[in-house]
Every structure is written in C-alpha cells, then in structure tokens.
Amino acid sequence: MPTKKQLIDIIKIQTEIVKLGLDVGQVMSLVVDKTAKLLGVDGAAVELVDGEEMVYEAAAGIAAPQIGLRLKRNASISGLCIEKQSPLICNDSETDSRVNRDACRQVGLRSLLVIPLIHCGEAVGVLKAMSAKRNSFSEEDVVLLGLLAELIAASMYFAALYDENELFHKATHDSMTGLANRGLFIDHLRNAIARSRRDGHASGVLMIDMNSLKKINDQHGHRSGDAVLIEFAKRIQSCARTSDTVARLGGDEFGVVLTSVESEEKLDMAIGRFYHEIKKEPFEFNGQQYDLSASIGAAYIPKEGNDALELLELADQRMYSVKQKHHANSLNR
After folding, report:
1. Is this model's pTM higher than 0.85 or not?
2. Which residues on adjacent β-strands are paired with residue 128?
3. Sheet hosting strand 203-210, strand order edge to edge
4. Pick the CATH number of 4-164 from 2.60.40.420, 3.30.1490.20, 3.30.450.40, 3.30.70.20
5. Torsion of CA 46, 51, 53, 55, to 10 degrees
6. Does residue 163 register a pLDDT over 90?
7. What is the largest CA-CA distance in the chain?
8. Where are the domains of the chain?
9. How many whole angstroms separate alpha carbon 8 and alpha carbon 116?
10. In what order do the strands lie in the sheet with 70-72?
11. Is beta strand 122-131 parallel, antiparallel or unpaired with respect to 111-119?
12. Which CATH class is domain 170-332?
C-alpha cells in the first residue's frame, strides 16, 4: 500500500485537478509532472490512442522533448497495455520483447511502468512512468500510479460529458470555427499562469491576426471570407498540441496558449511553425485561390508577467507591430 505521505500527495493532486476544471490538456500535463516526482523517477507521459497509433500528448522529465511522438499500437508495450487493460512493468527495455526498443532509446528510458486510462469501459490511453535505470518499479508503484490514472480518466469523463452538452459547447466555443471562445481561452490562460507559479513550468501566449480578411470580404464577398477564415482556423489548430488551447477571440483575431515551452527560443520556433503552416499553400474556394498569411505576437510566461490581461496586451502590441511591418511591405511591392 502507498505510504501516508504518498496518499496525502495524491489528495493534493486531486485538489489541483479540481481547480483545473475541464481543461484536460492541463490535467494531463499536471499529472505527468506529479507522476515523476511522486515515484522519484526520470520522466512520465500520457499516451492517447489515435487509430492504430499511440501518441505522446503530455510528457515530463526525459520524455518532455517527445511530445507528439507516435508509436504503432501493435509494436509497443503501451498498445499491449491498451489491449489487456491492465498495468504492465518493463524491468529492462533492452531485453523485454514487448517494448519498442528504438523508441525507448530515443526517450532515454531503461525501465517503465504503464497504467491504462479507462474511460467508459474503454482504454483510451496510458499513463507511463519512466526510469533511466533498470528494475525501478514495484507493485506498490502500480497501486500508486493507478490512483493517478483514475484521476485522469475521471477528468476525461467529465470533459467529454460536458463537451457533448450542446448548451455548454455553445457557451464556450466559437460557432463558426469550432475553436474555443474568448472566455474559455482566458480561463485556460489563467490555468497556465497558475501552473507556472506552482511548478515553474514556462508557457507562452500568442496573438494571431489574419492578414487581408477585409480585402477578401470586400472583393469576393463574405461567403468567401468565411470560408477562408475557417481554413485559417484549421491551419492554426493543426499546429497545436492537445495540451494547448487555440481560440477565436473575435473577427480575424485568434489566440493560442502554448503549455510547457522550455525557453524563449522554443517559443520562437513554435511561432515559426505557425507561420509555415498558415502560408504553406494557397487555399482554393469557388475557383479562386487565396494566399493566407498572419501577424503573430507573443509573450513568455512567467518571465514577462503573471496577469492574463497584461500578457494578452503585450502579445497584442507585438502582433500589431508585426502587422504594421507587413502592411508597409505590401505597399512597397
């Protein structure tokens, strides 16, 4: 059985999860952080099922650089855990035939513990603890990690329950693009700020303005403008991770909360990915091609502040500066 101290730690984590509400991405990020600390190991991850693959949706410690990593379900111990719906321990990844050895080496782990995340009777993912050493896990760890897995599963259940509620979805999402609305965005931004205060994990907030929407509306009509706006939203969403939040804040203005940004350089790299995805190719609608582009401003959390509205204002000012340069360059062509 877990020690008294470990049970107290679990209760504290429960309290923090309740405060995060329906923000499943933040719940997963919180739990992987706490998993590594609770078991005293080198890393942790939440992998979710995506068809025939397992995807790293949240990660901490040695697994942190691997967010987005995809593994074949039928060639990994995570997939086997999903199939059996029971905890699995690997004592040595170099000799255990159940693991994807190349992936283990890529992450830097040698032993691991995998717990299934059961949602409505179906395993939708796994919570995985990792160690760079062999033989790091015991049956006591299985019990302890199982308690955390239940917390994530419960969070997923209630998030899915409310997401299916039409009134709740309308209250928290933009009707045109399906993205989060301003209210939900601010709530998730405040969660990210609270997490940075609590655990010291940096985050970023982006303000993204679509260039030339008014020109498209004026020249081609609002139907074309709406189609372009929806495509723009899809391209932004495709750059984000599950733990991030993408929102339409109004008109042609969008916001993104980026969780677990390791440095300002990483934030700049993320901005570069958004720029690349937005303008990767023209969008065609009703026989007309549209070149999509954006102006992006960012603020780094907590270095540049801990107040949600002040951070948004800072990112917005930087976005406006970029937009002015874009406009000036357009006039000079």
Report:
1. no
2. 45, 114
3. 245-250, 253-258, 203-210, 294-301
4. 3.30.450.40
5. -30
6. no
7. 71
8. 4-164, 170-332
9. 23
10. 70-72, 53-61, 43-50, 122-131, 111-119, 88-90
11. antiparallel
12. alpha beta
Q: Which of 298, 293, 292, 291 is nearest to 320 (CA)?
A: 298
Mean pLDDT confidence for 294-318: 94
- Return the structure tokens found at 7: 């049970």
Q: What are the start-end ranges of the H helices in 108-241?
A: 139-163, 166-172, 182-199, 213-220, 222-239
Active-site positions? 252
Give the count of beta carbons closer than 10 Å to the beta carbon of residue 333: 4
CA pair distance 238, 233, nearest whole angstrom:
9
Phi-psi region of 325 (alpha: psi -120 to 50; beta: other; left: phi over 0): alpha
| Crossing angle for the helix pair 213-220 and 222-239, to the nearest 10 degrees | 150
User: In whole angstroms, what is the distance from residue 296 CA to residue 227 CA?
Assistant: 21
What would the pLDDT profile of 214-232 be if each residue is shown by its tens digit?
899 999 999 999 999 999 9
Whether 13 has a pLDDT exceeding 90, the answer reads no
Q: Which of 291, 297, 296, 295 is nearest to 279 (CA)?
A: 291
Cβ atoms of residues 329 and 211 within 8 Å: no
CB atoms within 10 A of CB 19: 13
Helix (H, G, I), strand (E, B) or coil at 307: coil
Distance CA 148, CA 10 (A): 7
Residue 319, pLDDT above cutoff 80: yes
CB 233 within 8 A of CB 213: no
CB atoms within 10 A of CB 197: 12
- Identify the residue whose tokens are 């723009």: 232
Residue with tokens 């179906």: 122
Q: Quick check: 24 and 57 in contact, CB under 8 A?
A: no
Report pLDDT for 22.
Answer: 66
Angle between helices 4-20 and 182-199 (to 10 degrees): 150
